[in-house]
Design brief:
Elements (H helix, E strand, L loop, with lengths): L15 H25 L7 H21 L20 H10 L5 E7 L3 E8 H20 L3 H36 L3 H12 L2
Antiparallel strand pairs: 1-2
């Protein structure tokens, strides 16, 4: 497929392997959507960052599978209407609230072609991934397996894979700072307690 999503290549029916990949991707998309929606409610407190790290990591494993297979080319030349775009604004707003003070970060436009630093927001990244996964899920739930796979694969390579990768790096960095940036006295007390139970 081309950068603009134009479909090219040979059209093949969805075989067992691709059907299994679609089912796995759909399950992972549902799990991701469920997790970010739950975190956005603000009920997770101290576990929110760890839960998000796991959800984003798992989504990226699924995306890597999509990126590793040949281009999926559905029978139709144009994508059929999947209905209105998913409304992820409530999730985005909830995540921004949960991540208040931690949401903004410095992002690189493209490490290969444009190393310019721009503002990034973790809540925007997580919501953007959710929107792309849900869009493909709508095709899947209508039984249009090749269309769902095409969308997930194309949007992984052009959009949500990049945003999820950025989010993963920020989440890992946040957890590292929270756990490793402690004052020497606290670290010394913890070490003493560990050595003298």
């Amino acid at each position: 497929m081309d950068e603009d999503g134009t479909r090219r290549g040979s059209v093949e029916p969805v075989g067992d392997e691709l059907a299994e990949l679609a089912a796995t991707t759909a399950a992972e998309a549902r799990a991701y959507l469920s997790t970010v929606t739950e975190v956005a409610t603000g009920r997770m407190d101290s576990t929110a960052l760890s839960v998000l790290l796991l959800a984003v990591s798992q989504a990226l494993v699924t995306g890597a599978r999509l990126g590793a297979v040949d281009d999926v080319v559905p029978a139709r030349r144009y994508e059929p209407d999947a209905g209105p775009d998913p409304d992820v604004d409530p999730v985005r707003a909830g995540l921004a609230n949960v991540l208040d003070g931690l949401d903004d970060y410095a992002d690189v436009v493209d490490p290969l072609t444009n190393a310019k630093l721009v503002r990034g927001a973790l809540s925007d990244d997580l919501a953007s991934v959710a929107a792309d996964l849900e869009h493909g899920l709508r095709h899947h739930e209508r039984g249009d397996i090749s269309e769902a796979l095409w969308w997930w694969q194309f949007s992984y390579l052009s959009s949500w894979g990049l945003r999820a990768t950025a989010a993963l790096r920020v989440l890992q960095s946040l957890l590292a700072h929270l756990r490793l940036d402690v004052d020497p006295e606290t670290a010394s007390d913890a070490e003493f307690d560990a050595l003298h139970p």
